[in-house]
Design a protein that fits this description.
globular
Length: 225
């Protein structure tokens, strides 16, 4: 019974981000695709909590970090951010065209400094938290009920990477998406392992937020000089 519930939960939650990206970037760009993307995002947030409360009948928790977890998250975030920045300095300019990136952000209505800053703050502080809550807590924990933890880490990372690959492919082309997806896969696996170790979303969120801040700082430099 527990394994059937875990499979049902995964079938409901895992496809949602990919559905949103496919609708908004590939199938129906424009108002319809944006509406599907928004609906999938809201469901991605709501379904894990509703499942936890109504199907599994558990109590809500703030997922407290213990035993040095938050410090580990900050330290790992700094390390990963340095690796991202180093990779960018080495090869980044060969993969992303600043002119094309500016065109992309303008087409999406975030081509001004104020709007780009607003979406950056949302990504760093809110979206990263949503992803840690949904991918690491909910998806990883359900996978752990089906397979051993090391396999669950890998599967959760693959699920996390899929919609990022679709998104990057639409925005930057498939050559860049293939390379960047390796980084997403490694980061997703690391953050799943972090959750497995500390049983809290906050260490992974601290690390994730710092990496997103680094990526967006690079984006700011490319777009606005």
């Amino acid at each position: 019974m527990e394994k059937r519930r875990a499979l049902a939960a995964l079938a409901l939650v895992v496809p949602l981000p990919s559905i949103g990206v496919l609708a908004s970037m590939y199938v129906a760009p424009g108002p319809i695709g944006a509406s599907v993307w928004l609906a999938s995002k809201l469901l991605f947030v709501a379904l894990p909590l509703l499942w936890w409360l109504w199907v599994e009948r558990e109590r809500p928790s703030l997922s407290p970090a213990r035993h040095g977890g938050f410090g580990f998250g900050l330290a790992s975030g700094i390390g990963l951010s340095l690796a991202v920045f180093g990779f960018w300095l080495a090869v980044g300019e060969h993969w992303i065209d600043g002119v094309e990136l500016r065109r992309l952000v303008e087409a999406n209505g975030i081509g001004t400094r104020g709007r780009f800053l607003a979406i950056s703050l949302y990504t760093i502080f809110v979206n990263s938290l949503i992803e840690e809550y949904a991918w690491r807590w909910f998806v990883y924990s359900r996978l752990e009920r089906l397979v051993r933890p090391s396999v669950a880490v890998g599967l959760a990372a693959c699920a996390f990477t899929l919609h990022h690959t679709l998104l990057l492919g639409a925005q930057f082309g498939w050559s860049f998406a293939a390379v960047a997806s390796v980084g997403v896969l490694v980061a997703g696996g690391f953050w799943s392992w972090t959750y497995a170790r500390y049983r809290s979303i906050w260490p992974g969120w601290a690390s994730h937020a710092l990496v997103d801040a680094t990526l967006l700082a690079i984006g700011w430099r490319l777009i606005f000089g």
